[in-house]
Write a structure and sequence with these properties.
Blueprint (H helix, E strand, L loop, with lengths): L6 E3 L2 E4 L3 H10 L4 E3 L3 E5 L2 H8 L4 E5 L6 H6 L4 E4 L6 H8 L8 E4 L6 H7 L5 E6 L9 E7 L5 H11 L3 E5 L5 H9 L1 H18 L4 H22 L3 H8 L5 H11 L2 H21 L1
Parallel strand pairs: 1-3, 2-4, 2-6, 4-5, 6-7, 7-8, 9-10
Antiparallel strand pairs: 8-9
Helix pairs in contact: 7-12, 8-9
């Protein structure tokens, strides 16, 4: 599916144009991606559909205007991405079930809705995969967890992988690991933003203006992340490089290590996982 630097995908229906649906759409609209047969997008409001209507290769439908919008969008689509709110999923699946093409691949982007739920509401002629992208998809830097369903093939997995690679990197895991993955990469951007907020407060305490503090801290996090990617080194190696023996950084790191951050992050991700299980149980 993927050539040197271009991706070719078959016709796609994207049901739900919320923030994650739109992020995925932005990847599909990249110049290096060709969607043969076009993209049909559905959402509730006519205003949102109108915003998308002028986009080349995209047909936008509003369910407020057209009760058949979802059924029309999936007719003839090879891949159907379900990006509506989790509570709306079972009803949507019942609505589109009879309009899906045999052999279509249905991809869930709805947090917490299991493959079993999807497969129970859809005909046995379609395969299901479950995904968990994160918000940096908006800038093409997502980490997406991807899990096979009981009826999906290796070819289906490869095709959907290439779809999500248009907005970042993809990690394939069994579905039993997807909730755990959501506590790391799914919620992870919030942990990073929290650390940025905390260091910004510390900078203001040291007498910097809020503007200066933001410049210092945001730039440092962005630069450190870029360095990690570009250097090919581990975070540990890079930390040791910055930490001169008996220097100032060493003193700061000692205080942070005294707080046992690994235990704190384990507790935090455990709490998120417990909540994911509560949500799944209804």
């Amino acid at each position: 599916m993927t050539h040197a630097d271009s991706t070719q995908l078959p016709s796609i229906a994207l049901l739900g144009a919320g923030s994650m649906g739109r992020a995925v759409l932005s990847g599909l609209l990249a110049p290096t991606v060709e969607v043969v047969g076009g993209i049909r997008v559905t959402n509730r409001s006519a205003a949102r559909a109108a915003e998308l209507a002028g986009t080349p290769g995209v047909t936008a439908f509003a369910t407020d205007d057209d009760p058949e919008a979802n059924r029309r969008a999936v007719a003839g689509a090879a891949i159907v991405i379900v990006a509506v709110k989790p509570a709306m999923v079972p009803e949507l699946l019942d609505e589109i079930a009879s309009s899906l093409e045999p052999g279509a691949i249905v991809v869930s982007v709805a947090a917490g809705v299991t493959v079993a739920t999807f497969e129970a509401h859809l005909p046995s002629t379609v395969s299901v995969l479950r995904s968990m992208p994160n918000t940096p998809a908006v800038v093409g830097r997502a980490v997406t967890g991807l899990s096979a369903g009981t009826r999906s093939s290796e070819a289906d997995l490869a095709l959907v992988r290439s779809l999500f690679e248009t907005v970042g990197t993809v990690v394939e895991v069994p579905e039993s690991q997807l909730d755990a993955l959501s506590t790391i990469s799914g919620s992870g951007p919030a942990y990073v933003f929290l650390l940025i907020e905390a260091l910004t407060v510390a900078a203001v305490e040291k007498g910097f203006s809020e503007e200066q503090a933001a410049e210092l801290v945001n730039g440092t996090f962005a630069g450190a992340s870029e360095l990690l990617v570009a250097s090919g080194k581990t975070p540990t190696e890079l930390r040791i490089q910055v930490t001169s023996p008996k220097g100032t950084t060493e003193r700061a790191i000692a205080v942070l290590q005294g707080a046992d951050l690994p235990a704190l992050f384990t507790a935090a991700t455990d709490a998120a996982l417990a909540r994911a299980k509560e949500l799944a149980a209804g």
